[in-house]
């Protein structure tokens, strides 16, 4: 069928996130968020444009006038099939990277055309996410305590064994207090709730749930990953101010509506790829050595359900000769 993704794009997509991580990794701890992001965007776009697909960036760096590259609406790829939606976050956690903190990652999701949902005017969503072992146990409309009890029961552990990851923000004061009172453990993160959602969904990270309010684009990207692994997430739009409340009304949206993963991404053919920039629970970051570097990536495809961890060794001088990316 025209427009459907018949090829396994996984390896091609991982080259994109690897290239972005290799370029962004040089900026670790150097205090320059924009430069780090720019390096990742540039590399990501160069490599995306070598892939045989007709992609439209639906979640990107912003509107065309503020983002010269990978802006929402930009076309990427070098063929006219398959037609796909692209969601990118060239550096998820620019502050984490600029300060050399854990869990900054490059993320890319690809799905059939017209299947990724985005509310351009509503920047934030309330989220709760878990892995496949607690799928069906969460309910964003229920109190925090109820969710903790239900997730613990699904996992066969006590609430005190659970670890919840939450963005460290004043808006989360109430959730943080309630999680503490319920006796669960917590990991407060400075940024990066895509990595937070992934940690909750993947085995071996020591994280059981993501809770709290974060970016709407990040919610859609997280939904792509969770769809691939059979995790669960519920979200609600979270308008910040009167303008956003008005935008909700104007667009006929309902603040109380619960969006599940299937509402955020309707495609049954979703690819999700992430490469670590700084070391974290989920992925190792980029480690450099003379004329080379290693990267650690996660590649998932919904259709097959395969999850791959790919550890790569790169020869930067060879890559420089092969591509237009100025690997250093
Ligand atoms: C959120 C979160 C992201 O930035 O968008 C956050 O989803 C911004 O939140 O993962 P604040 O506006 O409260 O700072 C990230 O943490 C990183 O882009």
Beta strand %: 25-35%
Helix and strand run: HHEEEHEEHEHEHEHEHEHEEEEH
Number of strands: 14
Mean pLDDT level: 95
Report on this structure:
The protein is an alpha+beta fold. The protein has helices at residues 10-24, 33-48, 94-98, 144-155, 173-182, 193-201, 216-229, 242-250, 261-264, 316-322; strands at residues 54-59, 75-76, 83-92, 105-112, 124-130, 163-167, 185-189, 209-215, 232-237, 259-260, 270-276, 287-289, 292-301, 307-315. Helix content is 31%, strand content 27%. The strands form two sheets. Strands 1, 2, 3, 4, 11, 12, 13 and 14 form an eight-stranded mixed beta sheet that branches. A six-stranded mixed beta sheet has the order 7-6-8-5-9-10, sandwiched between helices. The mean pLDDT is 95. Bound molecules: 7-O-phosphono-alpha-L-galacto-hept-2-ulopyranose. 7-O-phosphono-alpha-L-galacto-hept-2-ulopyranose is lined by residues 92-93, 167, 169, 191-194, 214-215, 218.
């Amino acid at each position: 069928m025209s427009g459907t993704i018949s090829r396994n794009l996984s390896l091609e997509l991982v080259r994109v996130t690897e290239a972005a991580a290799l370029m962004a990794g040089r900026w670790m701890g150097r205090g320059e968020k924009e430069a780090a992001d720019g390096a990742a965007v540039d590399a990501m776009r160069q490599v995306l444009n070598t892939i045989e697909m007709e992609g439209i960036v639906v979640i990107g760096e912003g509107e065309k006038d503020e983002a010269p590259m990978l802006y929402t609406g930009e076309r990427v790829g070098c063929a006219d099939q398959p037609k796909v939606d692209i969601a990118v976050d060239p550096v998820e956690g620019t502050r984490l990277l600029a300060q050399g903190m854990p869990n900054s990652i490059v993320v890319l999701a690809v799905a059939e055309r017209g299947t990724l949902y985005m509310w351009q005017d509503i920047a934030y969503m309330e989220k709760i996410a878990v892995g496949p072992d607690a799928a069906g146990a969460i309910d964003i409309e229920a109190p925090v305590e109820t969710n903790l009890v239900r997730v613990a029961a699904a996992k066969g552990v006590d609430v005190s064994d659970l670890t919840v990851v939450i963005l460290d923000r004043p808006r989360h004061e109430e959730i943080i207090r309630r999680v503490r009172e319920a006796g669960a453990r917590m990991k407060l993160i400075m940024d990066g709730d895509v990595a937070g959602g992934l940690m909750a969904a993947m085995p071996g990270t020591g994280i059981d749930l993501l809770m709290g309010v974060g970016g709407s684009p990040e919610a859609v990207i997280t939904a792509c990953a969770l769809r691939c692994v059979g995790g669960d997430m519920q979200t609600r739009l979270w308008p910040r101010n009167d303008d956003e409340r008005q935008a909700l009304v104007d667009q006929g949206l309902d603040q109380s509506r619960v969006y599940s993963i299937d509402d955020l991404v309707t495609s049954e053919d979703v690819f999700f790829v992430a490469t670590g920039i700084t070391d974290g629970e989920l992925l190792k970051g980029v480690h450099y050595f003379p004329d080379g570097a290693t990267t650690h990536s996660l590649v998932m495809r919904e259709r097959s359900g395969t999850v791959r961890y790919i550890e790569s060794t790169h020869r930067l001088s060879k890559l420089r000769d092969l591509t237009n990316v100025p690997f250093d």
